[in-house]
Request: fold
Amino acid sequence: MSAQSVDIHFFMGEIMFILFAETRPCAPSLVMATCLSIIAWPFVGSPTAASAADMAAPHMTTKASAVPAYQWTGCYVGLNGGGGASGTNFHSTVDPGTHLVPGDDTEVANDGTGSANASNFLGGGQAGCNWQTGTLAFGLEGDFDYFRSSPNFFNDTNTLPSTGDSFVIGQSLTTDYLATVRPRIGVAADRNFAYITGGVAFTHVNYVESYSDSLGAAGLGGVPGAGVASGSKFLTGWTAGAGWEYAWTDHWTIRFEYLFAKFGTSSVSGVITDSAGNTNTFHGSADLVVQVARAGLNFKF
Reply:
């Protein structure tokens, strides 16, 4: 038996002696206090209980650090590609002259007026810079895309009222490229950036209007006439649109964008002539609208 067990038995023996050896009864309060001391002693005085308390180490948890939101501030360069559609309203007028008699000139002008659409691939590049404050992001971008579209209008089914001879009149407007300079502004939600945009648009066009007839073929006099009017012009207009961009790494972003652009009017003038030296001056005008849907890939510095 260990020394600790001997001490415990000795102590309990003394307690029993106090309780039962005395001839006179103990006060109930003394008995109660003594019993509580016996019950509590193993917990407050036992080395084993103290050791168990020491072994109960507190459990501590650590919270993972929050990942900072992506920041759109910075400059970038990239490539884009997609599709573009152009639309044109053509208008013609014919001045009074000696080749076409009154009434014929009006008919030619009316039949030379119409509209046309065309679509084609476009592709190019862009560069710009963004700044972000809170969830608001804004920036400035310039882009240049190859875009060759050619809306054209031809009318070859009508005849001159005075003789019944047939005539053909046609117009075409061909673009070479599309370029824009635009601010962008939108809401940044971590790696997502939804924006609206608008600014200045640029293009170069080649405009051609042509006319020919078979005057004299009906045997009512006259000789065939023909004329061509052409010109090229740099056009400036406005553009507006919207897009969404996503940063799939810290340096690479992808985007999808729609733009609408409207340009001013182009005009040309030419002369219809025949072998007898008769003439009429004619004029053509054309406006231009362009719609673009494209995807882009950017590298952010």
User: Anything to note?
Assistant: Residues 3-55 form one domain. The beta strands are 74-94, 114-133, 136-147, 152-159, 166-175, 177-189, 192-213, 225-247, 252-274, 279-300.
